Amino acid sequence: xxxxxxxxxxxDAASWEGFHTALLEHDYVQNVECELVRRDGTPVHVLxxxxxxxxxxxxxxxxxxIWYDVTERRRLHERLVETQRLEAVRQMVLTYSHExxxxxxxxxxxxxxxxxxxxxxxxxxxxxLAMSHQxxxxxxxxxxxxxxxxxxxxxxxxxxxDG
Length: 163
Prior knowledge:
The protein folds into 2 domains: 7-69, Beta-Lactamase, CATH 3.30.450; 74-150. It contains 3 helices and 3 strands; from the N terminus they run H-E-E-E-H-H. It has helices at 13-26, 71-117, 123-146, and strands spanning 28-37, 43-54, 60-69. Strands 1-2-3 form a 3-stranded antiparallel beta sheet. A hairpin with a 5-residue loop joins strand 2 and strand 3. The longest helix is centred in the middle third of the chain and has 47 residues, at 71-117.
């Protein structure tokens, strides 16, 4: 059992060494996840359950076992983790959006009341008008952020929330 004989199956030398060492120490391995390489060079993740094969004098000559391809399961797990991460970010954005909308609404109301009380020709009215425009711009941004409620993490359509 040499690296030349079986090691080439493994994606890297460390994976082969770990597998080989465990097999020699225990005469078997059970449900060990390994990254192998297909003939075309693409990686494949497998769960291996194997037993060491020895000749009549007790020398290790190979192993036999079952290799279960878990590549797709692993890819789906990684996708699930990424989806959960994106959902957590989405929820955080929606929470902060709500927290921003409360004072923004009060600010817009106050600026509107200020505009109604001011003489339009005063510098204060011009400042209040500029504040009103900026608050309206921010309110538009918050509406767009609010549309995130309509987006699902598994949606591949970037226009899904533009409804």
